[in-house]
Amino acid sequence: MKNTTQTLSRRQILVAGATLSGGMALGLFIPGTARAAAPELEPRYWAEDAPDPREVNAWVVIEPDDSVTLRCPMAEMGQGTGSGLAMLLAEELECRWDNVKVEFASVNRNIRENTLYGDMVAAGSRGIRTTWPYVQQAGASARARLVQAAASKWNVPAAQCEARESKVFHQPSGRSLRYGELVKDAAKIKLSTEPAIKAPEQFKLAGTRQPRLDSAIKSTGQALYGIDTREAGQLYASIMSCPVFGGKLVSVDDSAIQGRRGIKQVVKLDDAVAVVADNYWRANEALKKLKVTWDGGAAAKTDSAQFARDYRDALDGPMVTARNDGDAKSAIAKSAHVVEAVYETPLLAHATMEPCNATVHLQKDRLDVWMGSQSPLQNAKMAAQEAGLKPEQVYFHQLYLGGGFGRRTFGDELRHAVRVAKAGNITQPLQLLWSREQDMRADRYRPQSAIRLKGALSPDGKLEAIFIQSVCGSIQRSTGQKVANGLDPTSLEGIGPSVPYNKVPNWYTGQMLKNTHVPVAYWRSVGGSQNSFYLESFIDELAHAAGKDPLEFRRSLTDRVDSIAVLNKLAEISGWGKPMAAGRGRGISLVENHGAVGGQIAEVTVKPSGEVRVDRVFAATDAYHVVNPNLVDAQIEGGAVFGMSAMLFGEITIQNGAAAQGNFNDYRVARMTDAPEMVTALALTGGRDDKGKPKWGGVGECSTAPIAAAIANAIFAATGKRVRSLPFKNVKLTELSSL
Amino acid sequence: MVTLTVNGQQHQIDVEPEMPLLWALRNEIGLTGTKYGCGIAQCGACTVLMDGHPVRSCMLAVSSVQGREITTIEGLSQNGTLNKVQEAWIAEDVPQCGYCQSGQILSATALLSRTPHPDNSDIDAAMAGNICRCGTYVRIRRAIHRAASDKA
Ligand code: FES
Ligand code: FES
Q1: Measured distance CA(A346)–CA(A447) in Å, rounded
Q2: Exposed (0-12), middle (13-18) or buried (19+): which is A387, by Cβ within 10 Å?
């Protein structure tokens, strides 16, 4: 091996990197008192796979020096679930908050020990809202054992002991013991009943604004992502899938790369070709020089213009009823004031900042995987099947994710890595990295859709009925799941049951699922990404047709406490109703998405050329309870920018059956120059669900859904022109007629 | 053999002269803080400083940077102390997934060395080449102003 760094372990590389770079140490000095009280995550994220003798239970490890480690089942892709769960653990465990670490729970152990960490899926804004009971219980149970261990040692009743700040105190005698001194005994204690967990109203730490735990490692280049995996003797592969989705590889002419430096082999799969080399750049350069023949089949004749026509035409075809309150059809037939519009949106790529990649080491009886995944348990099982191994023979090392947005749930990159390693008989560790072009062209996209909305207004401007016909790609169908009764709930989010309004007397939603050969999947905010644009733009159309203020009109459609709280908060923070200069406009949007209600007001400036600048966005959110408002704000800010990017620029078009865009030069995304100012506020209404459990909403997606309509409604306010087709970059505002 | 000066250290590496600096850093020298995002100078994830100026290492052949001082994210902190941009980044909790942030921090560092008190349009101009898919722009702006105000 020429290159000595490749024979070093990861840790050695970090240390070597430190010495080489002149003084960068692993423990960096971080000034500022606010930070001093917070723990830090490690650059390496995954837990060991063997049970740890220091653990109080599978979720919590306490060391002799009192430091606490939480095994987090959720990926870290920027959403900060690990930071939030650490606070919930500290809350119950009554330990010092600056002494909590987080590591990723062992996937292998989860397989061997009856999925004790649950499904480990970090998607659907469910990080906190599905994990809080486990983590709170793990913390409370550990605390109760520590207290019992101290009580036994002192021979006093546990009821006289109190846990606080990583110590157990016996007030009457003034004695105390540190958790680190008690942990060995505590781990052996069996309790007759597990202790109750706290209600959110009892929280002291959770609910307060705290720093996130990984800012330092992510500001110093230390955080390790899947792409940073460097195992001894590691090889690199670059792969290209058949550009036409579902097509096949016919032949490869590799004469142009004969004798090129570092190339190990060309590996052919059914539907892809890969080059393996000793350096990723060499592999990728060689891949570009291959002459490849593909068979795209009939799909190779399709294109986006045809698809768009097909989706619009299907609006006149049969629909499956998804929601039917009252009698919307006859209400509309009888109404003297009907508003009607057709809207449409395109396919979207996820374009995570880190292109998909997986590193595998395939051995006879063992497969090691290093990658960042939103669904590591499912991915590990899939990889086992691909490799011909048992699931418990897979060791999955979770790394930080350079963005997820729904893309990193399927393990397509892992499937590629295992197949290439297997087909190529590669015994060394192999890192397979999708080039940006592969990442964009082999994505599973946000579905394309078209919709027709009708609304009936009474003479005094009340909304009497909504009638919706939707044609949309089905994610369930595309990802091989069962579609029950011809309806896919993911395609209905935001137009079916999950809307923030409850006072529209007649409501019909019908849907026709329509897929093409283009794979579709979850894209941040899922159905809400298109449906909330449709419904909230249309509600705005209705408000204007009724001659009502758009915010007040929305208020008339609901008496839900969450929706009203968000509307009130928006009015309070935004200066809604204040006059704006000519060429400027303000638009509002309100959604329910992944268990939370999110509202936004966008302010835009429209230039005479038709160019639009989003100046400012106000966002109010009701997620009922939240753990860390600082991280919630970050999710709301980022989610809005993500949705704005799609609204203004996002579009994958299909030409000859393949994605036409391949990189950020033709798939434009929001940049600093596009970024609005943001004002965020929480409007938390707390409360309990119908099982009496505290309500927790998701915050990762509820700000992506409303932004498109807020901007479109602001453009209308500024110009009187209605944007009904996205992305906005294709809209010639100057040629659009005013309403 | 190509000789590179990275974070004050000399490295002799045996690679093709046209190999982009990005892959020499990541695969040959073992500094993985510099990230790959597009390979065509569109995203800024691979930004490093060359003699103090921000450059896209994915499009820069190693042969063209010989004799230049390259600074990567790993070289920004001195003697275990973060630079003021990194401090401000942490104080504002800028990173989400964090993948773009090495590039963002290096672009911001270069901006502040040229323009110690940038306004928003200076920030727009200097940072437009660095994409953040997590949408941390609001906090990047705040962190740059904080670093400029020296209260980081
Ligand atoms: S990787 Fe160099 S600019 Fe994107
Ligand atoms: S923090 Fe994720 S891309 Fe910028």
Answers
A1: 7
A2: buried
ipTM (interface pTM): 0.98
Distance from Cα B94 to the centre of ligand 2, integer Å: 9
Q: How far is A5 from chain B (nearest CA, A)?
A: 6
Q: Looking at the CA of A403, which ligand is closest?
A: 2
Q: Domains along chain B?
A: 2-74 (3.10.20.30), 84-149 (1.10.150.120)
Domains, chain A: 1-30 (no CATH), 38-218 (3.30.365.10), 226-297+356-433 (3.30.365.10), 304-348+444-730 (3.30.365.10)
Show the DSSP H helices in A37-165 as ranges: 81-93, 107-112, 132-154
State the helix-helix crossing angle for A179-188 and A132-154, rounded to 10 degrees.
100
- Mutate which of A353, A637, A642 for ligand 2? The one with the most ligand atoms within 8 Å of its CB, which is A353
pLDDT digits (tens, 9 = 90+) for A108-119: 999 999 999 999
pLDDT digit string, tens, across residues A719-738: 999 999 999 999 999 999 88
Tokens representing A700 are 């990762």
The alpha helices in A398-526, defined as continuous H runs, are 412-423, 436-441, 475-478, 489-492
Helices (H), A256-341: 280-289, 304-314, 328-334
Which ligand has the minimum distance to the alpha carbon of residue B100? 2
Return the closest-CA partner of residue A31 out of B73, B87, B149, B14.
Answer: B87
Q: Can you tell me the distance from the alpha carbon of A58 to that of A100, in angstroms, rounded to the nearest whole number? A: 15
- Interchain pair A22, B7: CB under 8 A: yes
